[in-house]
Specification:
The chain is α/β, with parallel strands linked by helices. It has a single domain, classed as TIM Barrel (Alpha-Beta Barrel), CATH 3.20.20. Helices cover about 40% and strands about 15% of the residues. It has helices spanning about 15-25, 40-45, 70-75, 90-105, 115-125, 145, 150-160, 175-185, 195-200, 205-210; strands at about 1-5, 30-35, 50-55, 80-85, 110-115, 130, 165-170, 190-195. An 8-stranded parallel barrel has the order 1-2-3-4-5-6-7-8, surrounded by 5 helices. Helix 4 (about 90-105) links the parallel strand 4 (about 80-85) and strand 5 (about 110-115). Helix 1 runs parallel beside helix 10, helix 5 (about 115-125) runs parallel beside helix 7 (about 150-160) and helix 8 (about 175-185) runs parallel beside helix 10. The longest helix is centred in the N-terminal third of the chain and has 14 residues, at about 15-25. The model has no long low-confidence stretch (mean pLDDT about 95). Bound molecules: 1,3-dihydroxyacetonephosphate (13P). The site of 1,3-dihydroxyacetonephosphate has 14 residues, from strand 8 and helix 9. GO terms for molecular function: triose-phosphate isomerase activity. Keywords: Cytoplasm, Gluconeogenesis, Glycolysis, Isomerase. It comes from Halostagnicola larsenii XH-48. This is Triosephosphate isomerase. Belongs to the triosephosphate isomerase family.
């Protein structure tokens, strides 16, 4: 089970959370990783934690201003990237371009999508994984795996009809070990979560609770 903690732009200490993620990853069979802001990737990766970017742009080296180049986040220490997060939506052609840019830089890819139909379209682009995250549940503390189990099962079906090699994750409102177990029972191979850890008073305790039943 992959547990990827997206720090978004929450005002947490990214290095302190990264150290907690690293320590909990060492204590569990689950794969626990963190996605800080691009500006924090190098400091976060220096802790030894598995580090992901939150986004890369569909560009190559050259005349681009204010963009995130896949090679730069890889050099900074990221091993993978989210693409098309609900809070960083892209057009289909740009999702494709970002997946290709990430592959060029050797980054693992997770393409996020709102619903099973978009999951099928995203899987057709050949990322390593897709993640279904109903936007209305993001940040609510109401877990997708309990509030909308059908969306997770339908996303698993949609991806497998297109490409069985593409893993399916889910996210939105996940904050406890029970939520992670429910996600796995529905066929998800991992979860994305943010506020349950990034806004927790004690991120390490929140992470320990997430992996406890695994
Ligand atoms: O957007 C998310 C992860 O990418 C989910 O956010 P929450 O865990 O805060 O609902």
């Amino acid at each position: 089970m992959l547990i990827l903690v997206n720090l978004k732009t929450y005002p947490c200490d990214p290095v302190a959370v990264a150290e907690a993620v690293r320590d909990v990853d060492e204590e569990t069979d689950a794969r626990v990783a963190v996605a800080p802001q691009a500006a924090h990737i190098e400091r976060v990766a220096a802790t030894g934690v598995e580090t992901w970017a939150q986004h890369v742009d569909p560009i190559d080296y050259g005349s681009n201003t204010g963009h995130t180049l896949a090679e730069s986040v890889a050099e900074a220490g990221a091993v993978g990237t989210l693409i098309n997060h609900s809070e960083q939506r892209l057009k289909l052609a740009d999702i494709d371009g970002s997946v290709r840019a990430a592959e060029r830089a050797g980054l693992e890819t997770i393409v996020c999508a709102n619903n099973p139909a978009q999951i099928g379209a995203s899987a057709a682009l050949g990322p390593d994984a897709v993640a279904v995250e109903p936007p209305e549940l993001i940040g609510t503390g109401t877990p997708v795996s309990q509030a909308d189990p059908d969306v997770v099962e339908d996303a698993v079906d949609a991806a497998s009809r297109v490409d069985d090699d593409v893993s399916v994750l889910c996210g939105a409102g996940i904050s406890t070990g029970d939520d992670v177990v429910s996600a796995g029972d529905l066929g998800a191979e991992g979860v994305l979560l943010a506020s349950g850890v990034a806004k927790a008073d004690d991120p390490k305790a929140a992470l320990e609770d997430l992996v406890d039943p695994l």
